[in-house]
UniProtKB/TrEMBL annotation:
Pfam families: Glucosamine_iso. It comes from Corynebacterium striatum. It catalyses: 6-phospho-D-glucono-1,5-lactone + H2O = 6-phospho-D-gluconate + H(+). This is 6-phosphogluconolactonase. The keyword Ribosomal protein does not apply.
Amino acid sequence: MVTLHRVSDVDELISSAALKFIDVVTAIQAPGGGLHNDGVARVVLTGGGAGIGTLRELARLDAAAHGQSEDYPALAIDWTRVHVFFGDERNVPVSDPDSNEGQARAALLHEVGIPEQHIHGLDLGAIAMEHAAKAYAGEIAEFAPNGFDLHLLGMGGEGHINSMFPHSPAVLEEEELVVAVHDSPKPPAERVTLTLPAVNRSQRVWFLVSGAEKAEAASHIVKGSPAVEWPAAGAHGTQETILFLSDDAAGEL
């Protein structure tokens, strides 16, 4: 069951998602909280305009919270109790402008004092993609064995999520959590992606969707269309699935 969270535009989408992110992660950080019952949040970040915009807003809100006086405290995430993963990555080093990890570091991670060992990147550009995929699956098994507390997802106009495109081997994968992609129709062609088995181990899955070109794909999320045709429709959280949707991407919903 997908919950529709309708907003007026991308700015309201970013604000709403960031505020809810803080509420959810701080709740997980209560003693015994989260999927692993250790008060540590495991979150998967996404790129794209709304995704990176949400990370920038989180950094802004974090700075504002720490700037408040003790008399008027604001809710703030303890970033030392967050582990960060990435839904996909292009086959480029982190220093490349196209790197999802690099963009996330610039937008948020460098700003909030998260421990370096809590940032779980794919090390692409340095090792072969198949090796990177296997190593990342091992990283997930070690640091998020029960799955993720929250997985953020952007979406393309044809319904792709992470680097799972319609009718691709990646979207058809039923066992592996991480696979290499050599023929992405969206450049660059070489990527590594989490699969639907990985996404669907997440307690919460949130789509961040804005833009008129995404209206048809958004409708297929709500309809629950076949994932092979519309990959986003195959993503579900075990507890909740929320579609943050701006008016321009809502179509007839």
